[in-house]
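I am sending you the entry underneath: sequence plus fold tokens. Let me know what the token row says about the fold:
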Amino acid sequence: MLKQINLLGMFVTDVPKSVAFYRQLGFAPITSRKDSRDAAYVGLGDFKLQFIAKDSAKDKPEAFQKDAFGEPKGAGLFI
């Protein structure tokens, strides 16, 4: 049985813009070991959102690309 969800990853076209939007909602940026335009995290309490640049999936395995480039976007959420 699922007890907790503490991280949700999303493919986005603009990582810094996504971080800025969620900061306005009250999420705090979480710094990582490397500062990258390819990925970023924000948090609210124990919950974190991960933003992954859609274009960074070009060099990843096929399963990763399927999630990144699949359409339509915004029609649902897969956990």
Q: What stands out?
A: The chain has two helices and four strands. The chain has a mean pLDDT of 82. The first helix runs from residue 15 to 24.
